[in-house]
Amino acid sequence: MDLTPFIIYEDEDILALNKPAGIVVHGDGRTKEESVSNWLVQKYPLAKGVGEMIRLEGKKNEDGTVSEGEIIDRSGVVHRLDRDTSGVLLLAKTQAGFDHLKSQFLERTIRKTYLAFVYGLVKEDHGTLNMKIGKSPSDFRKYSAGRGATGEMRDAVTYYQVLKRGEGFTLVEAKPKTGRTHQIRVHFQSMQRPVVCDKLYAASKPSILGFHRLALHARKVEFEDMSGKTQTLVAEFPEDFKHAFEEIGYKPKS
User: Fold this and answer.
1) pTM of the model
2) 1-55+68-107 adopts what CATH topology?
3) Does 54 score more than 80 pLDDT?
């Protein structure tokens, strides 16, 4: 796997990709497959070990002891995009770059903008989705907002603006203030407006507008580089988004 053509920004410490849909950011310890993190280490060997590793829970043995869990290598990973989400992904080539970006994520000064097609009509032209997110009680893979969610409930805020409405869909711009797992997907699902072709949160919905994967694209990220200069990175839309825009007669902003 070569992601070099998808590099949209690079300096000594930080790199950004326009991640294609269908590629995982890092492994999960259960399956063996190519990932962005693996590619980064292959291209930049000094990035090996940069960031924070994760240790999985150990398995319980027959004698009652618990074996040590496997360590997941997430070299260079500062934040994630879901496998089927395309768009801007920031990576760290050095530990200094990682720490610099991580602090901005923690302080919520990094600004992210997504575009998504959702099912149905979103009535309000703009709004704020301020609903805490926890685990779904029905499926360990899913998260849930509001009543029924279990476990730790974490604050989650998403600002949105409607860009275009059509027959059975709404095109929205979403700006998450927080960065919870599946946040945009969960927040719109809580409105009964799940993201188009979301096979986890809208499995029974038909594929529309030509999408065969999650209709979610990380369009723009704004952050400060190591010198303190603001960098604004924009990820070109993939072909499925371009075809959908053409079908509905929408011209995206540059």
Assistant:
1) 0.90
2) Pseudouridine synthase (3.30.2350)
3) no
